[in-house]
Amino acid sequence: MTTGTRRINAPRPGWRTLIRPWSRMRGTAVSRAAFAMCLGSFIALSPATAQRAHAAYAIAQYGEPKYPRDFKHFDYVNPDAPRGGTLVLANPDRSTSFDKFNPFTLRGSAAPGIGLLFESLATGSADEVASAYGLLADDIDVASDGMSTTFHINPHARFSNGDSVTAEDVKFSFDTLKSPKAAPQFAAYFADITRCVIVDPATVRFEFKQRDRELPLLAGGMPVFSRKWGVKADGSRIAFDQLAFEKPIGSGPYRIESYDNGRTITYKRDPNYWGDKLPVRVGTYNFERINYKLYSDATARLEAFKAGEYDALVENVARNWVRRDVGKKFDSGELIKREFAHHNGTGMQGFILNQRRPLFGDVRVRKALDLALDFQWLDRQLFYNQYKRIDSYFVNTDLQAKGLPSPGELTLLEPWRAKLEPSVFGVPPKQPDTDPPGSLRANLLEARALLAQAGWNYRDGALRNAKGEPFVFEILDDSGSSAVFEPVIAPYIRNLQKLGIEARFRVMDFAVYQKRLDAFDFDVTTIRFPDVQVPGADMIDRFGSKAADEPGSGNLIGLKSPAVDSILRALVGAQTREQLVDSVHALDRVLVNGYYMIPHWYSATHRVAFKRGLAWPATLPLYYTAEGWITSMWWFAAPQ
C-alpha cells in the first residue's frame, strides 16, 4: 500500500538540488501545499548571519555550510556520469492528462516534469538538513538588521531564449506571483516580503515587513521566469492566468521538445544550458531527453512498465511490490527491484476529518473514529508487514514530540491551557494497537463509550444523536487511486458499521475531486502532508486559521485554533534551533491530541523498479524523493 503519494504527491525535503518544487504542481490545493512545504523549508539564517551584513556563496541555518566556497560538486553525485539517452517515465502523480505548462496558476493541470524548466536564485544540498547555495545568484547579502536581503545575479545566467537573467526578470516573477493572476498561496507565502527592488541590472533587494530568519530564504527560493513569457509577436501580453500551452521561458537545464494531446511530453536537455559547470549542477541532469507518458490508471501504468514502455517505476504500493512487480522480465534481470534508504521526515498521511463539518467537531468523536482503524490487521493482510504506524506529524525526525513537554514547550502551551486538551500536557498518545493483549473489540468498546459521551447512541438500527440524526459521512476518493485505497477503506467501513456508523465510499473523476478539495467540499478524504526537515511558513498554510478560509489552501483540515496560531508565530519567528524544536514539539502535541487525522503508515525506504542499464551514484543523498533523484542524478550506463 502507499507510503504517501496521495494529494500532496511530491514530498520534497527543502529546496534541494534534486527537488524541484514546481515540477508536479497541478494548480490544485494539494500540489500547492507541496510547494508551500518547499518554500517553508528554505533555510533560515543563523543568528550570526542575521546580525551583520555579509555577502556569501552559501548560507546555513546553523553553523556553516558543509561545502566550502571552492567545492567542485556535491558528494552524492557522480561528476563523471555519462550523458545521453532518453529516460521514459509514467505519471508521477494521479493526473492522467495535462492542459497547461504554467504550474503557478490555480486552474488546470500542469504538465509533469515542468519544473525542469525553472530555477531559483539559490538551491540546496541533499545531504544537509538546512543549507543553501547560490544558483542564479552568485552572491547573497543579508542586511545587518535582517530586514532585507540582496542577491547578485550570476552574469552567465541565461534563459532558454538566450536572454540574460536580469533583475527585471526577478522582480517581474515576484510581482506576478504575488498578484491575483497567480495561485493565491503565493501571495500568502510572500506576504512578509514587502517588495522586490531593482538595485542595478544584475542586483535585486527583497525587503521585509519584519525581521524573520526565514524570509531571505523564501526570497531566494522563488522561481524565476522571463518577463517575455506570454508576450506575443505584436507586443501584446497574454494574461498570466491565461497562459496554457505557451512554452515557459525559464533558465533550467531542459526545454520542451514536443507534447501530444495532454498525454505525453518530452523535455530535451538544453545544449546551451548556462549552469552546466556550476558546482551545484555538476553530475546532474544526465539524460539527453526525459519523456513522460500519462496512463489512465494505476493498473494500466503498472502493466505498461512490465511491458517495457518506460524505464523506472517508483512503487508506493506494498502489495504491488511483493505480488505484482514480478514476472519473466524481473526473473531475467531485464527489470530490477531495489529499495533505497532515505532520511526524510516521513510526513503525515491519513484520513482527514474536515473540521468544517459539525459532525467532526467533538474530539471524542474524532478519537473514536481513530480507534476503529485496525492498522495491525491491514499491515498483515495488505501491506506484507512493510510499514509502521504514524504517530506524529513529524515522525522519523527529532521534531516529533516525545515524553513530557519541555520548559520551552510549556512556555508556548501554558497560556492556552484552558483551551487545549489536558492530554496535550502529558506524554503524546500512541496510536491504537490490536496486537495481543490489545484487540479490535477492546478498541471499539472504547470508541463506543467516547461516542456516548459525545451524545451518540445506538438505536433504531443506527448510531444517532439526540435529534435522532444518524451518523453518516462520505469518504471521498478519485478514480485514479480508488483501486489502491479501496482495500483499506472497505475494512475500515466494516469496523465503523459495528459502531452503527455509516461511511459511504465515493469515487469520482480526478479533476472533479480536485475541485471539491479546492472548495473544501468533502467529509473525509486521504491526504499526505509531505515531509519537511525545517518547518516554516508552510505550517501556516497547512494549519493556520486564516488559511482555513482560503479556497485551495493547504489547510484542508479546516483547523481554526488561536493556540495553534500562537505556536505558529513562535515557530516562524524562532531565532535558535532550540526555539524551533520547542515550537514544533508544541504544535505536534496539539495536533496529535486533537485527532484531526486518522494516521496511516510510513516506510523509510524508496522502492524503485527499473530497467537494466540505469545507474546511480555510489553515495546516496540523505533527503530526497525517488523520482527527483532519478531524473536529476541517474544515467544510462549502457549506450541508448
From TrEMBL:
Gene3D superfamilies: Dipeptide-binding Protein, Domain 3 (3.10.105.10), Periplasmic binding protein-like II (3.40.190.10). It comes from the Bacteria. GO terms for molecular function: peptide transmembrane transporter activity. CDD domains: MbnE-like. Keywords: Signal. GO terms for biological process: microcin transport; peptide transport. GO terms for cellular component: ATP-binding cassette (ABC) transporter complex; outer membrane-bounded periplasmic space. Residues 134-543 form the Solute-binding protein family domain. The keyword Lipid biosynthesis does not apply. This is Extracellular solute-binding protein family 5. It comes from Paraburkholderia phymatum (strain DSM 17167 / CIP 108236 / LMG 21445 / STM815).
